[in-house]
């Protein structure tokens, strides 16, 4: 679908594929027949440019027909390039500008706390978007509000739009920053399904604290010529590259 | 207006448990009563306006009606994209309240002058934009704002604005309030300029000019019918606002008249670039915009 649309961001999709597989396969309390079920878990994609893979997961889970995926980014199609809630069952919020979903998630988690409800809010963030000040506003306050029903997963592939994170605004010591902001922190291999499942289904290490799972990932994971390259943030696969990538991923 | 607002909000909150108040650490001597009456529904999120707007969207998506509260440009400009994407695009009931709109913060300087807010808020999808003219309008409009399904921006004064309306004056969201019917010219005022506009009408009457007055407390959706009616009656309109001339009420009224094909003369009383950086009280700065009755009088005489 990314090839057909000549779209970008395949690298950002592949780096979080395993995280998404675990969330939608094993973790999230959701019902495709009832996308607005009040007691569902909320999944918010904050790195809205990785919409394609979330649409795929939603179609796989039966939220909408998989034929929709062929219409990704097409004229009058249902699925825009950055994730949209408009007419797309299973999508909680529209994002695309970075640094928006965590504040929204804080509001949702607060509402759940007020109601005494047991649903959780999961936010998929990128490393690059941790440059945004709004992210740190929310990190600061989520701990203050004791939102232990809030779980952030950072797709930490160490590459942002134009360069490596280390060459732009280094996040390290990343885990220590979250700890200093009073969050529970778990670091995992973001491609290890069992480790992800363990991290995502365990209660926070300390009661009353929001959780972050720093998932160490490889951008473009699974496709040799895409892996860990800056170019595949924006590059769109041509027909040959698509065939080669599919062959590698199917192997 | 602040006092009228918080009292009206507390009345609404007492009857509707969905109402929440979120402040970005401002509202000293205003919000305390609400916080004491509804401790679980009052949230100070810290000096973090992007968070305030975003989390309020998340709360509204979860069944709340959320009022955000701060001063001048902080709850609007600082977090404009959160308002655009998170609140307006999702069409959720977050009501953004700015205290000290216009030149209310006078000598505090340009950072505290909320003078582009109406234009900016009025272009966002689903947004209702309200700038009450006096405490009576605030009291009447707050319950109507809370009952709206979608987002709303509410600009309040803070200059101890006097009550202008009669106690029984009916104020309806989206409908201009008619204070006076004139035959020579009609003033259309928004926000806290209502009292100066009313004073101007009286001064003009003493000079033999019959001026009408509308309080256009709802800027969006604009009451086009009321504008057309007074345009046809007097042919001369003067918009009166504490807002930059570009994109404000004057622009919206001109736009409405052109689209309706109603011929009328229009004069806009508002803030030009020459005011930026000038130090002075609200009254002083208003004086620099110009003498309203004199401006209206010369406008009417030039059209004769």
TrEMBL record, chain A:
Pfam families: Transketolase_N. SUPFAM superfamilies: Thiamin diphosphate-binding fold (THDP-binding). Residues 2-244 form the Transketolase N-terminal domain. This is Transketolase. It comes from Paramagnetospirillum kuznetsovii.
TrEMBL record, chain B:
Residues 1-163 form the Transketolase-like pyrimidine-binding domain. The keyword Nucleotide-binding does not apply. Gene3D superfamilies: 3.40.50.920, 3.40.50.970. Its cofactor is thiamine diphosphate. It comes from the Bacteria. Keywords: Thiamine pyrophosphate. PANTHER family: HYPOTHETICAL TRANSKETOLASE FAMILY PROTEIN (PTHR43825:SF5), PYRUVATE DEHYDROGENASE E1 COMPONENT (PTHR43825). Belongs to the transketolase family. This is Transketolase. It comes from Paramagnetospirillum kuznetsovii.
